[in-house]
Give the backbone structure.
Amino acid sequence: MDRIRIVGGRPLVVTIAVSGAKNATLPLMIASLLTEQTLVLDNVPRLADVALLQRILGNHGVDVMVGGKRPGDSLDAGQTLHVSAARIVDTTAPYELVSKMRASFWVIAPLVARMGEAKVSLPGGCAIGTRPVDLLIMALERLGATIDIDGGYVIARAPNGLRGGEIVFPRVTVGGTHTALMAATLARGTTVIDNAACEPEIVDVANCLNRMGARISGAGGARVVVEGVAKLSGARHAVLPDRIETGTYAMAAAMTGGDLLLAGARPEHLQAALDVLTHAGARIDVSDAGVRITRNGAGLSPVDISTAPFPGFPTDLQAQLMALMTRARGTSRIRETIFENRFMHVQELARLGARIQLDGETAIIEGVERLKGAPVMATDLRASVSLVIAALAAEGETIVNRVYHLDRGFERLEDKLRRCGATIARISA
Ligand code: EPZ
């Protein structure tokens, strides 16, 4: 298994190009199941999760063609995928595949909408919490699907097609909103989704669906209205920049006292995180080129925040902020309100010398003068990258184990960090 070796103490300088967003790419690829025509996606990041979803979709009969290099292309340009679900040959998504990536459960929506049936394995628990799918199932039922759960599989049927309905989510769910949106595009009549997730990735997917001929209005707000259409067509769409990757490198720059331009970043997609960074003592400058973050070596101030659905502080940046706050002058409090078990990084940060106590859903972080390198490992993607951030500021050598977590969601992480001054290398097994 690959490992990453980091020697801390070097500030991050110059530029990192932000990749396309993983959490938009995955539902966009899944949305290809809604049409027999080809969906062309630009700015797709080269990630293990994208490759895995390609395999999962392949099982349903979807062809994914990766566009070749074009003149002037650099690695910083994302890839172009041509995704074609001309003929769906299998409406079952087996446990072996769904259990590897939870988001693949979302195929249930386009499959039942287009084919009238879908049999999709329940994804099971994961490292950050139980993560049920009851609200996704509720949304499909509200659109007229009948649901059976049998042998660990959810079987959704709508032999005469879905029909529009009212869906009120009792809590904000990103996956629930993606599912409801995709299903409603091909339902007969009007669907109203209340308490919808407002994340930029929802808006990106809705924009793409509209390009495919869907009639969605209000995406990005809490009430989304979908007028169903009989068929969707192909389209071409560029994936939006990854706000979590942006926020992660912004924290890394604040941690190392660097001066870093995050090229192509969309600041309005992570305003809450930029505000927290400003409070903590970083300077943020926004320009057409992206977001520039500087810290001149003065100490970091502690913060007191809670994670929340967009536009609040994202749970996907909680671990990274915690890493940053291990070096603050004073005590920070970070409350995780989205996932009940998303503190697996705490014990690993402690191995680097962090002082963190857990009190229910709150982590209390007492800033320390210095961190010291150590071997560490993590259990999920964002937790792993929080260890990288801490390691960049730690004295001496840190070895991060289980690098495959990072490969799921950060494109060429060590390459991007090395190019802006970090001492970081992958050790291949
Ligand atoms: C998406 O997961 C993201 N995944 C997650 O990113 C992200 O952390 C999360 O949204 C929150 O922003 C993708 O986009 C692929 P939810 P999702 O449904 O859709 C509860 C990363 O690191 N809930 O918004 O699965 C749920 O347990 C990942 O990139 C129910 O109770 O998250 C959680 O407490 C990890 N019943 C809350 O809602 C349901 O049926 C929000 O979950 C569905 C969700």
The chain has a mean pLDDT of 96.
